[in-house]
Amino acid sequence: MSNAKGPDHSRRKERSRQVILSAARSLVAEQAYDKVTVEAIAARAGVGKQTIYRRWPSRSAVVFAAVLALSEGADGQSVALPDTGDLESDLKLVMRATAEEFADPSFDRLLRALNTEIANDAALAAEYREKLARPLDEAKKARLRSAQEAGQLDPDADLDLVLEVLYAPLFQRWLHRGGPLTPAYADALVDATLRAFGPARP
Amino acid sequence: MSNAKGPDHSRRKERSRQVILSAARSLVAEQAYDKVTVEAIAARAGVGKQTIYRRWPSRSAVVFAAVLALSEGADGQSVALPDTGDLESDLKLVMRATAEEFADPSFDRLLRALNTEIANDAALAAEYREKLARPLDEAKKARLRSAQEAGQLDPDADLDLVLEVLYAPLFQRWLHRGGPLTPAYADALVDATLRAFGPARP
């Protein structure tokens, strides 16, 4: 049934979706978030407001879809963490890259908008965990399990807790602008995490 | 000059401030945050919108002041951490209380509103650090320094990092609704922090 309008219709629909999501991302990157309305997104995308509301129920939903679309097409492979056999240097590589990403101004506003939406909407928070956070966490945990097998991490460690201790300080420092996100800071988080969950626990 | 209108005027002004801030807090606790407008706060407080705008430039500023007012009158004493000489049990007491506070629904919405404002406004984030976060952090660091002197914590530990490793996982789990905030979770954070920064570092 939905194909009755033909492949051209589907392509146009998908193209319009991409134009709207791209407009949402560029507006969020440019403006104070409370100025980013559905009206403003529609104007930037060159569509009517109703075209947006036919697909998404609210600004929250459009902005969330806009962020989600950035990771479309990324398969499991692309989020896998490096595994050279040296947990400490692999994690430092990853955490330095993460710190750099959070410190990037064009990424910063988009991430703040996403966090505003998920902080205030439990359903979006669940969708965020399911579609964005969980696949990334699973990739990270696969690396940690490999370290457990190699005797570089406590085999009994709760890997969700390990990830929280590793990432949450960086997240909170970024969200509250509490301090610089330097390579040295990234390294210090890896060092603390490995002391907390390394194999040589007392 | 400002006293020319007399003490009655000052008292009325202060009373009106308290009524407005209390109205802001109760609205935030009851409603979706994007429904909490300056108009709604004014209506709840029984004042004109201009009465609010004469004091505060924006919704952000009123909500921030409303949260800040909760800790008015608290002196240094009241934020001091327990110091029984046993760092582990003192921190577990504090972290269990913190987890309980974050899990309290009436506190939850107010804290989410505060975090929304400071995430999207660098000036408010700085004011938050100065007026709310720093005094609390100083009290916590005083307890950690006492533990360093007692040989219960690495004397070279960066105390800001210690606080981040201890608190940020709880904060992120709460903000993203990523899991339960139980006493066992609070304890696990203290255990991980003490392993990371305890005196017996390799």
Automatic annotation (TrEMBL), chains A, B:
- What PROSITE patterns does the record tag this protein with? HTH_TETR_2
Please give the Pfam families that the UniProt record associates with this protein. Answer: TetR_C_11 (PF16859), TetR_N (PF00440)
Query: HTH tetR-type domain spans which residues?
Result: 14-74
Q: Which residues bind DNA?
A: 37-56
Q: Which UniProt keywords apply?
A: DNA-binding, Transcription, Transcription regulation
What's this protein's name? TetR/AcrR family transcriptional regulator
